[in-house]
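Researcher: Can you fold this with heme C in place?
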Amino acid sequence: MSVRRMAVRSVVVAVAALLLAGGGFVLWASISTERSMARAIDTHEVDFPVPFPLDPEEVSQEGLTEEEARAVALERAQARGRHLVEARYACAECHGSDYGGGVMVDAFPIGRLLGPNLTRGEGGITGGYTVADWDRIVRHGVRPDGRPAIMPSEDFLLMSDQELSDIIAYLESVPPVDNEVPPSRLGPLGRVLVARGEIVFSADLIGPHDTPHPVLPPPAEVSVEFGRHLAGVCTGCHGMQLTGGRIAGGDPSWVPAADLTPSGLDGWDYADFRLAMLENRRPDGSEIREPMTFVSPFAQNMTEVEMQALWVYLQSLPSSSME
Ligand code: HEC
Ligand code: HEC
């Protein structure tokens, strides 16, 4: 179960456990959780350029100086990075629309989980980050000091080096925001959920932490391969096989995720899919509900090629026998 969806899954169970077992149990849970959060997790140490350089052939064809080539590369990387976060990787969902800090969960007694300030302003925490530090937090769920973070990094597992490099280039360019974000804290119930294994740190879901990442994403074209790459961020809710079902750990008020395989989207065509993604409406006019509605603001920034690649990939999946 991912931390993002920890919201209230076993609240009832955990509250019952709290009541039955009383203070000793909470103390045990608290100590066990402290220990788990204080662990150091080893990861590989990657390196890649920010920005990714231009193709040498282009540089020589255009007769660019080294400095000009870098400036062009940086400008392109920032534009790509902006698209990646605005259409696909959704960092703003928890780090704020200006990346100056935001909220993931603020619900006592679960906890107060805040997305830190990612800008260069006061209170920004990434000023001293190396490329390896970025890799650790985004693709491994591990902070620079080695402790597990409470951020759903498993959503970003398929991210290539170039995409992460582009995101870094973009985030370094956004206007600085002065905002001190207090550290995230788990409340008593959050601690119990961690101790009971109901909340699993991304760093423990992802692993081993030395698997090499792809250097480049698949080419941006209407292909099953590119669609599969894009659908990495759908699996957190729709399941690894995209067959849908209850969202593990989701808020109890959330409806189950839909089956996205051809049997689930039986009778749909591309136009139906596009409309569903952009306007939360099914072909029969019925409304698609929360939490899918969190996705459409990002889907609205997708390119036509990305939307079509997703569709082509979903249509290539084996039909599920569910339902
Ligand atoms: C669903 C919510 C969510 C999303 C989406 C998300 N983050 Fe986070 N992020 C968090 C939270 C919460 C923390 C604080 C973690 C903690 O204190 O354990 C965090 C921490 C961080 C940190 C600081 C780690 C440290 O302690 O030094 C960085 C850097 C970061 N996120 C980058 C990103 C980037 C880049 C993206 C998009 C690719 C992203 N995050 C997407 C919730 C999120
Ligand atoms: C935060 C969780 C979440 C994420 C992330 C998510 N979905 Fe959904 N999605 C849902 C839920 C829940 C439903 C069912 C809504 C309902 O029944 O009203 C749904 C419904 C849909 C539907 C409508 C299908 C139908 O038959 O009703 C489509 C299409 C869809 N999602 C595509 C996607 C794609 C593609 C992605 C990734 C780009 C994605 N979703 C990411 C939770 C999510």
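Model: Folded with heme C in place. The longest helix spans residues 11-38.
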